Amino acid sequence: EGKVLAQVGESNRKDVRNAVEAAAKAQPAWAKKSPFNRQQILYYIAENLEIRKRGFARRLVELTGVSTEEAEAEVALAVARLFYWAAYADKYGGTVQETQLYGTVIKIHEPMGIIGIACPDKSPLLSFVSLMGAAIARSNSVVVVPSEKYPLLALDLYQVFETSDLPGGVVNILSGSRDHVSKYLVEHQNVDAMWYFGSQEGSKFVEHTSAVNVKRTWVDYGVGRDWTDDKQGRGEEFLYHSTQVKNVWLTMGDIFAN
C-alpha cells in the first residue's frame, strides 16, 4: 500500500565489528552450557514465538502481502522448526569410527564458533529461524543479516529472545543490504564460517574472499530453496555446516586384539 511501517538502520563495518566482538565474547560460555540447558532455551524461544504468533502473522501480511492463512502457516512452521532444532541440542555430538589398526577412533562434532549468516528474502521468518536455530543448537554464536526486503520480522524476534533466557551476544542481527554487510562479515578474520543465501555473484565473492583465512562457506549461487519443505529447510545438511570434526584415536594393545 506504500505506507511506512518502520525505519530500519543500514549496518556498516563498525556495526559488523561490534557484533562479531559480542559473538566472540558469548560463544565460549554458550558452548559450555549443558546440551539440556541450550535445549530448554530453544524450547522457550519456540514457545514464546507461538504465544506471539498472531502478531508475527499480521506483520508478515503487512510486509509481504501474503494471505492471512499463508502467514499463519509460516509462523506455525517457524515454531515447529525451532522445536526441531531444540531436539538436536543434545544429539549429533559424534560417533565411534572403525580404524585399520588396533584401537578405536572417536569422531567429535564441535561447534564452528562464530557463523555469519546472510538470509534470503523468501519466507523471511521461516528461513531466518531455520538457519539461526541450527547454528545455535550446536553451540555456535551467530551474526545474522536478515531478509533485506523484510528485516522487521527478524528484529521483532529480539523481544522473544529477551524473554527466553537467551544469553546476550549469542544471536546478533544486522539489518541492511545483504551484500554490503556480508562483504564486511566475510572479510572479518574472526568469523569462522559464512552462510550466504543470495545472488550468484555474492556467492562467488563469499567463496573467493573466505579463502584468505580458510573460512567454511555455505552458499546457494542464487538457486533458491523451498523453506517450507522439510527436505530443504532442515536436516543433516544444516548440522553438517554447523559443526567441525575432531577425531581422537584411542590406541589399544594386543590384549584387546581378539
Q: What structural class do helix, strand and pairing data support?
A: alpha/beta
Spatial order of the strands forming the largest sheet = 5-4-3-6-7
- Per DSSP, the total helix count is 10
The termini sit apart by 76 Å
Order of helices and strands: HHHHEEEHEHEHEHEHHE
Mean pLDDT: 92
Q: DSSP strand (E) fraction?
A: 15-25%
| Radius of gyration from the alpha-carbon trace, in angstroms | 19 Å
| Biggest sheet layout | 5 strands, parallel
* Low-pLDDT ranges: none
Anisotropy-based shape: globular
Helix coverage percent: 40-55%
Number of strands: 8
Description of the structure:
This protein is of the alpha/beta class. 49% of the residues lie in helices and 17% in strands. The protein has helices at residues 13-32, 35-51, 53-64, 68-87, 124-137, 152-162, 178-187, 200-210, 230-233, 236-242, and strands at 94-97, 103-111, 114-118, 141-145, 171-173, 193-196, 216-219, 243-251. Helix 4 runs parallel beside helix 5 (124-137) and helix 7 (178-187) packs parallel to helix 8 (200-210). The longest helix has 20 residues, at 13-32. The termini are far apart.
